[in-house]
Amino acid sequence: MIDEEKLRKSFGERVRSIRERNELTLLDIEVATGISEGALSKIENGKKNVNLPTVFKLAAGLNVEVTDLVSNLFKAVEGPI
After folding, report:
1. Is residue 1 helix, strand or coil?
2. Are 54 and 11 in contact (CB under 8 A)?
3. Which of 3, 27, 28 has the alpha carbon at shortest distance from 81?
4. DSSP letters spanning 42-68
């Protein structure tokens, strides 16, 4: 079974890591994606589920491939997907 909380936290940590590595603020990402700073904060803290269009918006706003955002998620999930 997939631990959704662990998945959200892992995804959020990855978003934050890439954002900070690129020296971007939450406001920078809000401007680039249209996703509010509050929603971005919740995503980064694993408190908000994201849908597929949001994943693509985040990838574009962070200037990375979608696979860069989700590749670490396989480690966060135990067992087959």
Report:
1. coil
2. no
3. 3
4. HHHTT-S---HHHHHHHHHHHTS-HHH
- pTM for the predicted model, two decimal places: 0.89
Q: Which amino acid is residue 32, in one-letter code?
A: A
- DSSP-based three-state secondary structure for 32: helix
Give yes or no for a contact between 74 and 63, defined as CB atoms under 8 angstroms apart.
no
Q: Domains along the chain?
A: 4-76 (1.10.260.40)
- DSSP state letter for 77: S
* pLDDT tens digits for range 15-57: 999 999 999 999 999 999 999 999 999 999 999 999 999 999 9
User: DSSP assignment, residue 79?
Assistant: S
